[in-house]
What we know:
Blueprint: E1 6-13, H1 22-39, E2 48-51, E3 54-59, H2 65-75, E4 81-88, H3 104-118, E5 128-131, H4 135-152, H5 157-168, H6 172-179, H7 183-192, H8 195-213
Parallel strand pairs: 4-5
Antiparallel strand pairs: 1-3, 1-4, 2-3
Helix pairs in contact: 1-2, 2-8, 4-8, 5-6, 5-7, 6-7
Amino acid sequence: MPSAIYAVLIADVMESRGRADLRSLLGKKLALLSRRHLHRKLIQLPYSVTAGDEFQTVTRDLPSIPTLIRDLRVALRPLSLRIGVGLGGIPSRIQAPVNRLGGEAFQSAREAIEKLKNGSLFKFEVLTAFVSRDEEFDSTINLLYGLHDTLMLKITARQWETIEVFLEKPTLEQTARRLKLDNSTVSRNLKRGYYWQLAETVKGAGSLIRQTFC
């Protein structure tokens, strides 16, 4: 692998044709998330809409990729996303606009998103795919996210709402006050919404990425 490894995330909004407000909705949500992730130095460039229903970013902080994926899925609800991640080199200087950059990481991300669109990864529905030069890593992390996505697809709108607030206010009491629910309801929504499994995926996938590439 080259010494400078970047990750490119390409996200595609599913079932987007019926949303007349898609561009505006994407712009507002991505602007907020860009500020948050740039402030934390998780991404190199703001999230940029590069086609009608597609947006991209670049990161050098590879172990943060699972956090980026989680935050995108939570922040862009009710939109559903396919997310392709490509790891590799980028020969040019990292600067906006992102759609003028190229190289291995972009090619791999495009390959990943195409695998999601044509359903070639597994015989079950998945919404996340990784492509790198390391086939063993790809096989492991894609299986991990395949199982993760199987659970994620079962999460209800109410459970997503609880997860979103809990990520901002990570105690049962604070979340319950914000949502005007009791603690037991919040706890139940998190458990039935597979929050703890999703949280362990972020930790486990981040560790796998760190051990492989960092």
